[in-house]
Design a protein that fits this description.
Blueprint: H1 3-30, H2 36-54, H3 60-77, H4 83-89, H5 92-98, H6 104-123
Organism: Pedobacter heparinus (strain ATCC 13125 / DSM 2366 / CIP 104194 / JCM 7457 / NBRC 12017 / NCIMB 9290 / NRRL B-14731 / HIM 762-3)
Protein name: DUF2809 domain-containing protein
Pfam family, one: DUF2809
Length: 132
């Protein structure tokens, strides 16, 4: 199998997994019995998968650092409260992507989500580039 075909198959798997994690994340916000931190853990997992989708050949540890940095920067951006960005945050999509308010617990949740992704990819072979 050519490298291009392997990349396409891997990217397709990542897209499916991203969609699955997004659905789980939205459902976690709709079900009152699921702790809010689960949605934040899933957000970090989605960010990890999105970064990996873009940089398919980059090591998982580098992907983890990049995705965690993005999550942290988005969380820190919530300390900035200009009218224009708050208007974006007040939309459904804006709130899902940018959040609404800074919480230290979100930082912890993003770290946990990233660690879960690292462990998942370390101990599974389903996303290996050697899969035929």
């Amino acid at each position: 199998m050519t490298s291009l075909n392997r990349n396409i198959r891997l990217r397709f798997r990542y897209v499916l997994l991203i969609v699955f994690v997004i659905v789980l994340g939205i459902l976690s916000r709709k079900a009152s019995f699921i702790p809010l931190i689960i949605g934040d853990v899933l957000y970090a997992a989605m960010m990890f998968l999105c970064v990996k989708l873009l940089f398919i050949r980059v090591n998982f540890w580098i992907i983890a650092l990049i995705s965690l940095l993005i999550c942290f920067l988005i969380e820190l951006s919530q300390l900035y409260n200009a009218v224009w960005i708050n208007d974006i945050r007040n939309t459904t999509l804006g709130a899902l992507i940018l959040g609404r308010g800074f919480l230290w617990s979100d930082i912890v949740a993003y770290t946990i989500g990233t660690i879960i992704c690292i462990l998942f990819f370390q101990f599974t072979r389903i996303f290996s580039d050697k899969v035929d």
